[in-house]
């Protein structure tokens, strides 16, 4: 087949999306620190791109879908992430690139969410909000 055209860059974040990311910053920092000890650098980089898309409410762009998955719904670590993953599988299954764009990143969030109560509290440098 002919080569796929490169994906256009996502549009810049809106003020609302930037605010959602700012609110998510404390848990996102802790998630990234945990994730980078758990998976390869390349895997962590890709997961963090998708998690930022989800946490900002920008949503995850999927080939063949008119609008990004979960656009307009900022995802938080306190959300029903298992339900979100089930929705992702049911709604975007074929477009999810083998699960790497939605189900894998959401799965990592679920694992972190389950570990969070047993993790030490964030240090002062990371910020006490969580």
Describe what this molecule looks like in 3D.
- There is one protein chain.
- By secondary structure, the chain is mainly α.
- Helices cover 50% and strands 0% of the residues.
- The protein has helices spanning 15-38, 41-56, 81-92, 103-115.
- Helix 1 packs antiparallel against helix 2 (41-56), helix 2 (41-56) packs across helix 4 and helix 3 runs antiparallel to helix 4 (103-115).
- The longest helix is centred in the N-terminal third of the chain and has 24 residues, at 15-38.
- The radius of gyration is 15 Å and the shape is globular.
- Residues 125-130 have low confidence and may be disordered.
Average predicted local confidence, pLDDT: 87
Rg of Cα set: 15 Å
Q: What is the beta-strand fraction?
A: under 5%
Give the termini distance in whole angstroms.
Answer: 48 Å
Count the strands? 0
């Amino acid at each position: 087949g002919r080569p796929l055209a490169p994906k256009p860059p996502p549009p810049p974040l809106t003020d609302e999306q930037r605010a959602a990311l700012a609110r998510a910053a404390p848990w996102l920092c802790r998630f990234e620190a945990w994730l980078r000890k758990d998976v390869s650098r390349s895997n962590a980089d890709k997961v963090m791109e998708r998690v930022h898309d989800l946490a900002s409410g920008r949503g995850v762009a999927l080939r063949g879908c008119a609008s990004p998955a979960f656009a307009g719904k900022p995802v938080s670590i306190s959300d029903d992430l298992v339900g979100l993953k089930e929705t992702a599988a049911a709604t975007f299954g074929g477009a999810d690139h083998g699960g790497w764009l939605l189900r894998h990143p959401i799965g990592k969030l679920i694992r972190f969410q389950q570990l969070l109560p047993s993790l030490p509290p964030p240090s002062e440098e990371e910020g006490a909000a969580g």
